[in-house]
Amino acid sequence: MINKESPIPIYYQIQEHIRENINQQKWVKGEAIPSERILTEQFGVSRMTIRQAVQGLVDEGILMRKRGSGTFVSNEKVEQPLKEITSFTKLMEQRGMKASSKITLFSVRKPNEVEAEKLQIDIEADVYHIERIRLGDEIPIAIETSIVPCSIAEGLKEEDIQHSLYEFIEVKKGYQLGDAKQSIEAIGATERISKLLDVPIDSPILQIERVANLRSGTPLEYVRSQYAGGRFKFYL
């Protein structure tokens, strides 16, 4: 199974075997893979080599770790178009996944200079400051920090954002959503991001900065998000 005389690194050979098992659906999406001990015995290599192979596939998004439960075959990455405004809830529903949120911050305050400029509001205007961990089927997908003018989302309550902020804006406030301008960069997971998204420190993270607009062109939301790179991808 493993050719120790080959110039191909052993950990890479193990990764190829794991990929083959997944492609042939011997290990299906959402299913736990064998433990490190079993893989060590199966391939006849050290536990350190198994960890290197598995971690590489976790970094690629092929496998995912669940703290206290083991390592699992990843579900397909969630896709989101960069130019459109689509709520996280709708993205999950389109893929047959259950969306949920853990609210870590909900407050009203004054914007800083950057936020006021992005939202085209006065520095003395009130804004909602919202931080949520967005989950799909109870798996952390992203940390999302939203700054929303109170003048647009007046009356917003914490229970409203348990589901969808955009639904509140459209249904309860009667606004139409427009387009969005986004920038994206790759970073490594900090200790805080690692803890909140349940990913290893320094693992790939997609950091997004977005200004979403109403159909009228008025800025609706300035949001900064960190997405687990192995669980999400954007397309043009």
Automatic annotation (TrEMBL):
Q: Give the GO biological process terms.
A: negative regulation of DNA-templated transcription
According to the UniProt entry, its GO molecular function terms are:
DNA binding; DNA-binding transcription factor activity
Q: By its UniProt entry, which InterPro entries does this protein fall under?
A: Bact_HTH_transcr_reg, Chorismate_lyase_/UTRA_dom_sf, Tscrpt_reg_HTH_GntR, UTRA, WH-like_DNA-bd_sf, WH_DNA-bd_sf
**Pfam families registered for this protein in UniProt:** GntR, UTRA
Name the UniProt key words of this record, in alphabetical order.
DNA-binding, Transcription, Transcription regulation
Q: Which Gene3D superfamilies match?
A: Chorismate lyase-like, Winged helix-like DNA-binding domain superfamily/Winged helix DNA-binding domain
Q: What is this protein called?
A: Uncharacterized protein
Q: Which organism is it from?
A: Heyndrickxia sporothermodurans
